[in-house]
Amino acid sequence: MGEIRGPWTINSERIGYENPWMCVTEYDVTRPDGKPGLYGVVTPKHLALAILPIDTHGYVTLVGQYRFALKRYSWEIPEGGGHLDGDPQACAARELREETGLLASDWREIMRLDLSNCITDERAIGYLATGLTEGEADPDDTEVLETRRLHFRDALAELHAGEIEDALTVAMLLRAYYMASEGHFDAALTAAMLDV
After folding, report:
1. Of residues 143, 146, 158, 163, which has the active-site annotation?
2. What does the DSSP 8-state code read for residue 161?
3. Are 14 and 25 in contact, with CB atoms under 8 Å apart?
C-alpha cells in the first residue's frame, strides 16, 4: 500500500523535470474512484509574493511586462519570489524596490493564497505597502519593465473592464477594496483609496 493523500493513494513518484525555479513530479496513483491514474504537480522553489503599493493620495503603482507563458503583455502589481525559508516581508521589500524603485516604511500582510491548486502547491503572500518613497529601480536581467501610477479606483475600473487579469493583482485589488470598505484601514488611507 502506498502513501495515502486524502482519497488518493500514491503508488510511486518520479521527477519528470527540474530547474532552479521549479520541479515537476509525476505520481502513479490510485484515484478516488479506485482506478489507476497519473497526477502531475508543479512545485515552485520560491514563495510567490505580491505587493500593493498605495501612496497617500490613493495612487497605486503597476508594473507592465511581457509574460512568456501567456504570450502577451500584462499590467500587474509588483510581484516576485521569495526564499521558502526566508523572511517573506524582506523579500517583498526587495521585489518592490527592484521593480519600481519604491521603498515602503509600512507593511501589512493582507492575503494568503493557494495558486492554481489543482496542478501546483504554490503559495502566495500579499502585502499592502504604504509610507512610500521613491528610489531607483533595479530589475533582474530577464525583466523588461514599465511602471505607471493610477488611482486605486482607476485600477479597479481596469480590473472590471478586463484590462487587468493577473490573478494576484485581481485578488489583491479586491481584497484591499473590501478591507477599505469595511474599515480595516485608517481613515486617511481609506478616504484616499475610495476617493471619498
Report:
1. 143
2. T
3. yes
